[in-house]
Amino acid sequence: MDQTTVQLLCPECTKEWQITPNDLPTPASMFHCPNCHASRRLSEFMRTDRDLQTLKQLG
To answer: Rounded to an integer, what distance in angstroms lies between the CA atom of residue 12 and that of residue 20?
Structure first.
């Protein structure tokens, strides 16, 4: 079985990565980029609206 992932994109440094929704806090929580340490709401790191919807459904 494939594990669902969401794509993240840092709005500051443009680092891209994938992670499972279970490894993330809620979309309204503060999140920190592992590359540049920018702090924003997690929802602002979602690469697409579909990634945000996946996070909300599975997270």
So the answer is: 22
